[in-house]
Amino acid sequence: MNITMIGTGYVGLVTGTCLAEFGHHVACVDKITEKIERLQKGRVPIYEPGLEALVNKNVAEGRLRFTTSLADSVPEADAVFLAVGTPTSRRGDGYADLTYIFEASREIARHLSGYTVIIDKSTVPVGTAAQVERIVRQENPEADFDVASNPEFLREGAAINDFMRPDRVVIGVKTERAADVLHEIYKPLYLLDTPIVRTTIETAELIKYAANAFLAVKISFINEIANVCEAVGADISALARAIGMDGRIGGKFLHPGPGYGGSCFPKDTLALMRIVQEYGESLRIVSAAVEVNAAQKARMIKKIRDMLGGSESGKTLAVLGLTFKPETDDMRESPAVTILPALLEKGARIRAHDPKGMEEARNFLPLEVEYATNAYDACENADAVILLTEWNQYRALDLERIGSLLRKRIFIDLRNVYEPEKLRSLGFQYTGVGRK
Ligand code: UGA
Fold first, then answer.
1. What would the mean pLDDT of 336-347 be, rounded to a whole number?
2. Mind listing the domains of the chain with CATH numbers?
3. Of the chain's two ends, which shows fewer C-beta atoms within 10 Å, N or C?
4. Which residues lie with the beta carbon below 6 Å from any ligand 1 atom?
5. Taking Cα atoms as reference points, which of 141, 174, 17 lies closest to residue 81?
6. Are 70 and 108 in contact (CB under 8 A)?
7. Whose CA is nearest to atom 19 of ligand 1?
8. Closest CA to 55 of 12, 3, 4
9. How far is the CA of 260 from the centre of ligand 1 (A)?
10. What atom of ligand 1 comes closest to residue 254's alpha carbon?
11. For residues 343 and 309, what is the distance between their CA atoms, to the nearest angstrom?
Protein backbone atom coordinates (compact mmCIF):
# COMPACT_ATOMS: atom_id res chain seq x y z
CA MET A 1 0.00 0.00 0.00
CA ASN A 2 1.04 3.60 -0.53
CA ILE A 3 0.67 5.63 2.61
CA THR A 4 1.18 9.32 3.37
CA MET A 5 1.80 10.31 6.97
CA ILE A 6 1.17 13.96 7.73
CA GLY A 7 3.17 15.16 10.72
CA THR A 8 6.53 13.84 11.83
CA GLY A 9 6.04 14.35 15.54
CA TYR A 10 6.14 11.49 17.93
CA VAL A 11 3.06 9.65 16.68
CA GLY A 12 3.60 10.28 12.97
CA LEU A 13 7.22 9.25 12.99
CA VAL A 14 6.69 6.05 14.96
CA THR A 15 3.56 5.07 13.03
CA GLY A 16 5.04 5.89 9.61
CA THR A 17 8.22 3.96 10.35
CA CYS A 18 6.39 0.92 11.72
CA LEU A 19 4.01 0.86 8.74
CA ALA A 20 7.05 0.85 6.45
CA GLU A 21 8.41 -2.03 8.51
CA PHE A 22 5.10 -3.83 7.80
CA GLY A 23 6.04 -3.58 4.12
CA HIS A 24 4.06 -0.52 3.01
CA HIS A 25 5.50 2.40 1.09
CA VAL A 26 5.34 5.40 3.36
CA ALA A 27 6.01 9.08 2.73
CA CYS A 28 6.26 11.15 5.92
CA VAL A 29 5.39 14.78 5.28
CA ASP A 30 6.10 17.78 7.46
CA LYS A 31 6.05 21.50 6.82
CA ILE A 32 9.20 22.14 8.81
CA THR A 33 11.94 21.92 6.19
CA GLU A 34 14.70 21.70 8.79
CA LYS A 35 13.11 18.65 10.39
CA ILE A 36 12.68 16.87 7.05
CA GLU A 37 16.27 17.64 6.09
CA ARG A 38 17.49 16.14 9.37
CA LEU A 39 15.35 13.06 8.85
CA GLN A 40 16.63 12.71 5.31
CA LYS A 41 20.11 12.55 6.82
CA GLY A 42 18.95 9.76 9.10
CA ARG A 43 18.77 11.87 12.25
CA VAL A 44 15.65 11.41 14.36
CA PRO A 45 14.71 14.53 16.35
CA ILE A 46 13.32 12.70 19.41
CA TYR A 47 14.74 10.01 21.64
CA GLU A 48 12.74 6.79 21.37
CA PRO A 49 14.51 3.46 21.83
CA GLY A 50 15.06 1.64 18.52
CA LEU A 51 13.43 4.32 16.36
CA GLU A 52 16.46 5.77 14.63
CA ALA A 53 17.71 2.33 13.61
CA LEU A 54 14.28 1.36 12.27
CA VAL A 55 13.99 4.64 10.33
CA ASN A 56 17.38 4.11 8.70
CA LYS A 57 16.66 0.47 7.88
CA ASN A 58 13.38 1.28 6.14
CA VAL A 59 14.85 4.25 4.28
CA ALA A 60 17.70 2.03 3.07
CA GLU A 61 15.23 -0.63 1.94
CA GLY A 62 13.30 1.97 -0.05
CA ARG A 63 9.98 1.88 1.82
CA LEU A 64 10.27 5.09 3.84
CA ARG A 65 10.97 8.62 2.71
CA PHE A 66 10.63 12.14 4.06
CA THR A 67 9.32 15.14 2.14
CA THR A 68 7.82 18.59 2.62
CA SER A 69 5.57 18.20 -0.40
CA LEU A 70 2.04 16.83 -0.23
CA ALA A 71 1.79 17.00 -4.03
CA ASP A 72 4.62 14.53 -4.15
CA SER A 73 2.83 11.72 -2.28
CA VAL A 74 -0.91 12.29 -1.66
CA PRO A 75 -2.09 11.64 -5.27
CA GLU A 76 -0.74 8.11 -5.26
CA ALA A 77 -1.68 7.33 -1.63
CA ASP A 78 -4.27 4.68 -0.74
CA ALA A 79 -4.37 6.10 2.77
CA VAL A 80 -3.40 9.44 4.26
CA PHE A 81 -2.84 9.52 8.02
CA LEU A 82 -3.33 12.73 9.96
CA ALA A 83 -0.80 12.71 12.78
CA VAL A 84 -0.36 16.41 13.44
CA GLY A 85 -0.32 17.89 16.92
CA THR A 86 -3.49 18.67 18.87
CA PRO A 87 -2.11 20.68 21.80
CA THR A 88 -4.28 22.22 24.49
CA SER A 89 -5.63 25.40 22.94
CA ARG A 90 -3.82 28.63 23.75
CA ARG A 91 -7.05 30.05 25.10
CA GLY A 92 -6.30 27.95 28.19
CA ASP A 93 -9.81 26.50 28.27
CA GLY A 94 -8.79 22.85 27.97
CA TYR A 95 -10.03 22.43 24.41
CA ALA A 96 -7.77 20.64 21.93
CA ASP A 97 -6.47 23.00 19.26
CA LEU A 98 -7.53 21.55 15.90
CA THR A 99 -5.96 24.21 13.68
CA TYR A 100 -3.33 21.83 12.33
CA ILE A 101 -5.86 19.08 11.62
CA PHE A 102 -8.10 21.39 9.63
CA GLU A 103 -5.23 23.04 7.78
CA ALA A 104 -3.85 19.65 6.78
CA SER A 105 -7.31 18.47 5.67
CA ARG A 106 -7.69 21.44 3.35
CA GLU A 107 -4.28 20.82 1.83
CA ILE A 108 -4.80 17.09 1.39
CA ALA A 109 -8.13 17.72 -0.32
CA ARG A 110 -6.47 19.55 -3.20
CA HIS A 111 -4.13 16.65 -3.97
CA LEU A 112 -6.49 13.68 -3.71
CA SER A 113 -6.65 11.41 -6.71
CA GLY A 114 -8.37 8.02 -6.88
CA TYR A 115 -10.04 6.46 -3.82
CA THR A 116 -8.25 7.50 -0.61
CA VAL A 117 -8.97 6.92 3.06
CA ILE A 118 -8.09 9.86 5.31
CA ILE A 119 -7.31 8.41 8.71
CA ASP A 120 -7.24 10.36 11.92
CA LYS A 121 -4.37 9.19 14.12
CA SER A 122 -4.13 12.31 16.26
CA THR A 123 -6.16 12.37 19.47
CA VAL A 124 -9.13 14.52 18.55
CA PRO A 125 -12.51 15.38 20.05
CA VAL A 126 -15.56 13.40 19.03
CA GLY A 127 -16.95 14.80 15.81
CA THR A 128 -13.60 15.84 14.34
CA ALA A 129 -13.64 13.19 11.60
CA ALA A 130 -17.04 14.49 10.51
CA GLN A 131 -15.59 18.00 10.34
CA VAL A 132 -12.61 16.76 8.34
CA GLU A 133 -15.00 15.10 5.92
CA ARG A 134 -16.94 18.36 5.48
CA ILE A 135 -13.76 20.35 4.89
CA VAL A 136 -12.41 17.93 2.29
CA ARG A 137 -15.78 17.72 0.53
CA GLN A 138 -16.03 21.52 0.43
CA GLU A 139 -12.49 21.93 -0.82
CA ASN A 140 -12.72 19.20 -3.47
CA PRO A 141 -16.34 18.15 -4.23
CA GLU A 142 -15.17 15.60 -6.82
CA ALA A 143 -12.87 13.69 -4.48
CA ASP A 144 -13.46 9.97 -3.88
CA PHE A 145 -12.61 9.47 -0.20
CA ASP A 146 -13.67 8.24 3.22
CA VAL A 147 -12.62 9.48 6.62
CA ALA A 148 -11.74 7.00 9.39
CA SER A 149 -10.53 7.14 12.97
CA ASN A 150 -7.65 4.94 14.11
CA PRO A 151 -6.46 6.10 17.55
CA GLU A 152 -2.98 5.23 18.77
CA PHE A 153 -2.14 3.72 22.14
CA LEU A 154 1.63 4.10 22.01
CA ARG A 155 3.58 4.80 25.17
CA GLU A 156 6.64 6.96 24.82
CA GLY A 157 9.72 4.88 25.52
CA ALA A 158 7.98 1.67 24.42
CA ALA A 159 6.31 2.91 21.24
CA ILE A 160 7.77 0.49 18.71
CA ASN A 161 6.86 -2.55 20.74
CA ASP A 162 3.40 -1.09 21.42
CA PHE A 163 2.91 -0.63 17.68
CA MET A 164 4.22 -4.02 16.65
CA ARG A 165 2.46 -5.96 19.43
CA PRO A 166 -0.63 -3.96 20.35
CA ASP A 167 -3.32 -5.15 22.79
CA ARG A 168 -5.84 -4.14 20.14
CA VAL A 169 -6.29 -1.99 17.05
CA VAL A 170 -9.34 0.28 16.95
CA ILE A 171 -10.78 1.27 13.60
CA GLY A 172 -13.71 3.64 13.33
CA VAL A 173 -15.21 3.52 9.83
CA LYS A 174 -18.38 4.34 7.96
CA THR A 175 -17.95 2.21 4.85
CA GLU A 176 -16.78 -1.28 3.89
CA ARG A 177 -14.33 0.24 1.44
CA ALA A 178 -12.57 2.15 4.22
CA ALA A 179 -12.61 -0.91 6.48
CA ASP A 180 -10.93 -2.97 3.74
CA VAL A 181 -8.11 -0.43 3.40
CA LEU A 182 -7.52 -0.36 7.17
CA HIS A 183 -7.55 -4.15 7.37
CA GLU A 184 -4.98 -4.28 4.58
CA ILE A 185 -2.77 -1.77 6.40
CA TYR A 186 -2.81 -3.83 9.60
CA LYS A 187 -2.66 -7.23 7.89
CA PRO A 188 0.67 -8.23 9.49
CA LEU A 189 -1.00 -8.00 12.90
CA TYR A 190 -3.53 -10.69 11.95
CA LEU A 191 -0.69 -13.17 12.06
CA LEU A 192 -0.29 -12.30 15.75
CA ASP A 193 -4.06 -12.67 16.32
CA THR A 194 -4.29 -9.02 17.37
CA PRO A 195 -7.92 -8.13 18.11
CA ILE A 196 -9.25 -5.51 15.70
CA VAL A 197 -12.14 -3.55 17.16
CA ARG A 198 -14.29 -2.18 14.35
CA THR A 199 -16.72 0.47 15.39
CA THR A 200 -18.28 3.78 14.42
CA ILE A 201 -16.05 6.81 13.99
CA GLU A 202 -17.47 8.59 17.07
CA THR A 203 -16.90 5.54 19.27
CA ALA A 204 -13.33 5.19 18.06
CA GLU A 205 -12.67 8.85 18.81
CA LEU A 206 -14.05 8.46 22.33
CA ILE A 207 -12.23 5.17 23.04
CA LYS A 208 -8.88 6.93 23.02
CA TYR A 209 -9.95 9.58 25.52
CA ALA A 210 -11.68 7.06 27.75
CA ALA A 211 -8.58 4.83 27.82
CA ASN A 212 -6.27 7.68 28.79
CA ALA A 213 -8.74 9.09 31.32
CA PHE A 214 -9.12 5.68 32.96
CA LEU A 215 -5.35 5.27 33.26
CA ALA A 216 -5.05 8.77 34.73
CA VAL A 217 -7.77 7.87 37.24
CA LYS A 218 -5.93 4.69 38.16
CA ILE A 219 -2.71 6.61 38.86
CA SER A 220 -4.45 9.31 40.87
CA PHE A 221 -6.31 6.61 42.80
CA ILE A 222 -3.12 4.84 43.81
CA ASN A 223 -1.43 8.15 44.65
CA GLU A 224 -4.28 9.01 47.03
CA ILE A 225 -4.14 5.57 48.62
CA ALA A 226 -0.37 6.02 48.96
CA ASN A 227 -1.01 9.17 50.93
CA VAL A 228 -3.39 7.25 53.19
CA CYS A 229 -0.67 4.61 53.64
CA GLU A 230 1.67 7.32 54.87
CA ALA A 231 -0.96 8.51 57.35
CA VAL A 232 -1.74 5.09 58.83
CA GLY A 233 1.74 3.56 58.51
CA ALA A 234 0.80 1.03 55.80
CA ASP A 235 2.92 -0.01 52.81
CA ILE A 236 1.73 0.95 49.31
CA SER A 237 3.97 -1.53 47.48
CA ALA A 238 2.41 -4.56 49.16
CA LEU A 239 -1.02 -3.00 48.90
CA ALA A 240 -0.71 -2.27 45.15
CA ARG A 241 0.65 -5.75 44.50
CA ALA A 242 -2.20 -7.35 46.38
CA ILE A 243 -5.03 -5.38 44.83
CA GLY A 244 -3.42 -5.74 41.39
CA MET A 245 -3.59 -9.53 41.72
CA ASP A 246 -7.35 -9.22 41.44
CA GLY A 247 -7.86 -9.72 37.71
CA ARG A 248 -10.70 -7.19 37.78
CA ILE A 249 -8.27 -4.50 38.93
CA GLY A 250 -5.02 -5.53 37.23
CA GLY A 251 -1.51 -4.77 38.43
CA LYS A 252 -0.47 -2.21 35.82
CA PHE A 253 -0.55 1.56 36.38
CA LEU A 254 -0.64 1.16 40.13
CA HIS A 255 2.76 2.71 40.81
CA PRO A 256 2.52 5.76 43.05
CA GLY A 257 4.79 8.68 42.28
CA PRO A 258 5.01 12.44 41.92
CA GLY A 259 1.95 12.60 39.65
CA TYR A 260 1.47 11.74 35.99
CA GLY A 261 2.89 13.96 33.27
CA GLY A 262 3.64 13.79 29.56
CA SER A 263 1.95 15.04 26.45
CA CYS A 264 -1.14 12.84 26.79
CA PHE A 265 -2.81 12.35 30.19
CA PRO A 266 -2.77 16.02 31.27
CA LYS A 267 -3.95 17.24 27.86
CA ASP A 268 -6.47 14.49 27.12
CA THR A 269 -8.18 14.54 30.53
CA LEU A 270 -8.80 18.29 30.15
CA ALA A 271 -9.99 17.94 26.56
CA LEU A 272 -12.36 15.12 27.47
CA MET A 273 -13.91 17.14 30.28
CA ARG A 274 -14.48 20.01 27.85
CA ILE A 275 -16.06 17.77 25.20
CA VAL A 276 -18.38 16.25 27.77
CA GLN A 277 -19.39 19.67 29.11
CA GLU A 278 -20.53 20.68 25.65
CA TYR A 279 -22.98 17.82 25.70
CA GLY A 280 -24.28 18.91 29.10
CA GLU A 281 -22.70 15.95 30.90
CA SER A 282 -20.00 15.85 33.55
CA LEU A 283 -17.08 13.59 34.41
CA ARG A 284 -16.64 13.99 38.14
CA ILE A 285 -14.23 11.10 38.55
CA VAL A 286 -11.87 12.34 35.83
CA SER A 287 -12.09 15.83 37.24
CA ALA A 288 -11.09 14.50 40.68
CA ALA A 289 -8.15 12.63 39.13
CA VAL A 290 -6.89 15.88 37.61
CA GLU A 291 -7.16 17.67 40.97
CA VAL A 292 -5.44 14.83 42.79
CA ASN A 293 -2.62 14.96 40.27
CA ALA A 294 -1.99 18.66 40.89
CA ALA A 295 -2.17 18.09 44.65
CA GLN A 296 0.31 15.20 44.38
CA LYS A 297 2.92 17.43 42.78
CA ALA A 298 2.40 20.03 45.52
CA ARG A 299 2.65 17.28 48.14
CA MET A 300 6.05 16.27 46.78
CA ILE A 301 7.35 19.80 47.34
CA LYS A 302 6.21 19.64 50.96
CA LYS A 303 7.69 16.17 51.36
CA ILE A 304 11.07 17.45 50.20
CA ARG A 305 10.83 20.48 52.49
CA ASP A 306 9.95 18.33 55.49
CA MET A 307 12.92 16.04 54.84
CA LEU A 308 15.16 19.11 54.83
CA GLY A 309 13.97 20.08 58.30
CA GLY A 310 11.28 22.53 57.17
CA SER A 311 13.15 24.73 54.70
CA GLU A 312 15.01 24.26 51.44
CA SER A 313 16.59 27.69 51.60
CA GLY A 314 20.33 27.53 51.07
CA LYS A 315 20.28 23.76 50.51
CA THR A 316 21.82 22.05 47.49
CA LEU A 317 19.60 19.34 46.05
CA ALA A 318 20.80 16.59 43.72
CA VAL A 319 17.94 15.71 41.37
CA LEU A 320 18.09 12.43 39.46
CA GLY A 321 15.73 12.29 36.50
CA LEU A 322 13.92 15.19 34.84
CA THR A 323 11.78 13.70 32.06
CA PHE A 324 8.15 12.75 32.76
CA LYS A 325 9.16 9.09 32.64
CA PRO A 326 12.20 7.01 31.67
CA GLU A 327 13.33 6.17 28.11
CA THR A 328 12.25 9.47 26.61
CA ASP A 329 13.68 12.98 26.36
CA ASP A 330 10.20 14.47 26.65
CA MET A 331 9.81 17.11 29.36
CA ARG A 332 6.21 18.08 28.65
CA GLU A 333 4.20 18.32 31.89
CA SER A 334 6.96 16.51 33.73
CA PRO A 335 6.57 16.75 37.53
CA ALA A 336 10.06 18.32 37.48
CA VAL A 337 8.60 21.36 35.71
CA THR A 338 6.31 22.05 38.69
CA ILE A 339 8.48 20.83 41.55
CA LEU A 340 11.91 22.29 40.75
CA PRO A 341 10.93 25.95 40.19
CA ALA A 342 9.05 25.92 43.51
CA LEU A 343 12.17 24.70 45.32
CA LEU A 344 14.39 27.26 43.56
CA GLU A 345 12.00 30.01 44.47
CA LYS A 346 12.44 29.20 48.13
CA GLY A 347 16.20 29.46 47.86
CA ALA A 348 17.32 25.93 47.02
CA ARG A 349 20.20 25.24 44.65
CA ILE A 350 19.55 22.42 42.20
CA ARG A 351 22.07 20.18 40.51
CA ALA A 352 20.26 17.82 38.17
CA HIS A 353 21.05 14.88 35.95
CA ASP A 354 19.00 13.02 33.37
CA PRO A 355 20.33 10.39 30.94
CA LYS A 356 18.53 11.80 27.87
CA GLY A 357 16.49 14.84 28.89
CA MET A 358 19.00 17.52 29.88
CA GLU A 359 19.06 19.31 26.56
CA GLU A 360 15.27 19.46 26.43
CA ALA A 361 15.09 20.33 30.14
CA ARG A 362 16.87 23.62 29.49
CA ASN A 363 13.79 24.75 27.53
CA PHE A 364 11.46 23.91 30.42
CA LEU A 365 13.34 24.73 33.63
CA PRO A 366 14.64 27.99 35.10
CA LEU A 367 18.16 29.02 34.09
CA GLU A 368 19.40 28.58 37.67
CA VAL A 369 19.20 24.77 37.42
CA GLU A 370 22.70 23.33 37.09
CA TYR A 371 23.33 20.15 35.13
CA ALA A 372 25.69 17.38 36.18
CA THR A 373 27.48 14.92 33.93
CA ASN A 374 26.29 11.92 35.93
CA ALA A 375 24.38 10.95 39.06
CA TYR A 376 27.49 11.05 41.27
CA ASP A 377 28.50 14.53 40.12
CA ALA A 378 25.01 15.71 40.96
CA CYS A 379 25.37 14.39 44.52
CA GLU A 380 28.69 16.01 45.36
CA ASN A 381 28.25 18.11 48.50
CA ALA A 382 24.48 18.10 48.13
CA ASP A 383 22.24 18.21 51.18
CA ALA A 384 19.87 15.58 49.80
CA VAL A 385 19.23 13.48 46.72
CA ILE A 386 15.82 13.39 45.05
CA LEU A 387 15.06 10.51 42.69
CA LEU A 388 12.42 11.99 40.39
CA THR A 389 12.37 9.69 37.32
CA GLU A 390 13.01 5.95 37.56
CA TRP A 391 15.63 5.56 34.81
CA ASN A 392 17.34 2.15 34.91
CA GLN A 393 20.65 3.97 35.40
CA TYR A 394 19.41 5.03 38.85
CA ARG A 395 18.22 1.61 39.97
CA ALA A 396 21.60 0.26 40.95
CA LEU A 397 23.46 3.30 42.25
CA ASP A 398 26.55 2.78 44.37
CA LEU A 399 24.80 3.94 47.54
CA GLU A 400 27.95 3.99 49.65
CA ARG A 401 29.53 6.32 47.12
CA ILE A 402 26.41 8.49 47.01
CA GLY A 403 26.43 8.62 50.81
CA SER A 404 30.05 9.70 50.96
CA LEU A 405 29.51 12.40 48.32
CA LEU A 406 26.48 13.92 50.02
CA ARG A 407 26.83 16.47 52.78
CA LYS A 408 23.90 14.83 54.51
CA ARG A 409 22.59 11.33 53.88
CA ILE A 410 19.03 12.22 52.88
CA PHE A 411 17.36 10.16 50.14
CA ILE A 412 13.99 11.26 48.75
CA ASP A 413 12.76 8.51 46.48
CA LEU A 414 9.67 9.76 44.65
CA ARG A 415 9.41 6.57 42.55
CA ASN A 416 9.91 3.97 45.30
CA VAL A 417 12.93 2.49 43.54
CA TYR A 418 14.87 1.61 46.69
CA GLU A 419 14.10 -0.49 49.75
CA PRO A 420 13.70 1.79 52.79
CA GLU A 421 15.42 -0.69 55.14
CA LYS A 422 18.46 -0.96 52.89
CA LEU A 423 18.89 2.80 52.76
CA ARG A 424 18.40 3.18 56.51
CA SER A 425 20.95 0.48 57.21
CA LEU A 426 23.44 2.63 55.27
CA GLY A 427 22.68 5.61 57.48
CA PHE A 428 20.33 7.46 55.13
CA GLN A 429 17.21 9.28 56.18
CA TYR A 430 14.80 7.87 53.60
CA THR A 431 11.36 8.72 52.34
CA GLY A 432 9.39 7.25 49.46
CA VAL A 433 5.77 7.63 48.43
CA GLY A 434 3.20 5.72 50.48
CA ARG A 435 5.55 3.86 52.76
CA LYS A 436 7.56 4.39 55.89
C1 UGA B 1 0.03 7.36 27.46
C2 UGA B 1 -0.72 6.01 27.35
O3 UGA B 1 -0.15 5.06 28.26
C4 UGA B 1 -0.66 5.47 25.92
O5 UGA B 1 -1.43 4.28 25.82
C6 UGA B 1 -1.23 6.54 24.96
O7 UGA B 1 -1.17 6.14 23.62
C8 UGA B 1 -0.43 7.82 25.11
O9 UGA B 1 -0.50 8.26 26.48
C10 UGA B 1 -1.01 8.85 24.17
O11 UGA B 1 -2.13 9.31 24.41
O12 UGA B 1 -0.40 9.11 23.14
P13 UGA B 1 2.61 8.07 27.72
O14 UGA B 1 2.08 9.43 28.06
O15 UGA B 1 3.69 7.95 26.71
O16 UGA B 1 1.41 7.11 27.20
O17 UGA B 1 3.19 7.44 29.05
P18 UGA B 1 2.68 6.47 30.21
O19 UGA B 1 3.59 5.32 30.28
O20 UGA B 1 1.24 6.20 30.13
O21 UGA B 1 2.98 7.39 31.51
C22 UGA B 1 2.31 8.63 31.71
C23 UGA B 1 2.63 9.19 33.08
O24 UGA B 1 2.04 8.41 34.11
C25 UGA B 1 4.13 9.26 33.40
O26 UGA B 1 4.41 10.50 34.01
C27 UGA B 1 4.33 8.12 34.36
O28 UGA B 1 5.40 8.31 35.25
C29 UGA B 1 3.01 8.11 35.11
N30 UGA B 1 2.68 6.81 35.71
C31 UGA B 1 2.43 5.73 34.93
C32 UGA B 1 2.60 6.69 37.10
O33 UGA B 1 2.81 7.67 37.85
N34 UGA B 1 2.26 5.48 37.65
C35 UGA B 1 2.01 4.39 36.88
O36 UGA B 1 1.69 3.32 37.46
C37 UGA B 1 2.10 4.51 35.49
1. 98
2. 2-199 (3.40.50.720), 209-290 (1.10.1040.10), 295-431 (3.40.50.720)
3. C
4. 123, 152-156, 212, 215, 219, 253-255, 257, 260-262, 264-265, 268, 324-325
5. 17
6. yes
7. 155
8. 12
9. 7
10. 36
11. 14
pTM for the whole thing?
0.95
Q: Helix or strand or coil: residue 65?
A: strand
Please give the single-letter amino acid code of residue 279: Y
CB 430 within 8 A of CB 411: yes
Contact assessment for residue 124 and residue 81, using Cβ atoms and an 8 Å cutoff: no
Nearest Cα residue to atom 23 of ligand 1: 260
Residue 281 · residue 266 · CB < 8 Å: no
pLDDT in tens, 206-220: 999 999 999 999 999
User: How do residues 219-277 score in pLDDT, each as one tens digit?
Assistant: 999 999 999 999 999 999 999 999 999 999 999 999 999 999 999 999 999 999 999 99
264 included as an active-site residue: yes
List Cβ neighbours of 299 (8 Å cut-off, separation of 6 or more): 227
Coil, helix or strand for 207?
helix
Separation of CA 282 and ligand 1 centre (Å): 24
42-92 per-position pLDDT tens digit: 999 999 999 999 999 999 999 999 999 999 999 999 999 999 988 888 777
Is residue 291 packed enough to be buried (19+ CB in 10 Å), middle (13-18) or exposed (0-12)? exposed
pLDDT the model gives residue 75: 97
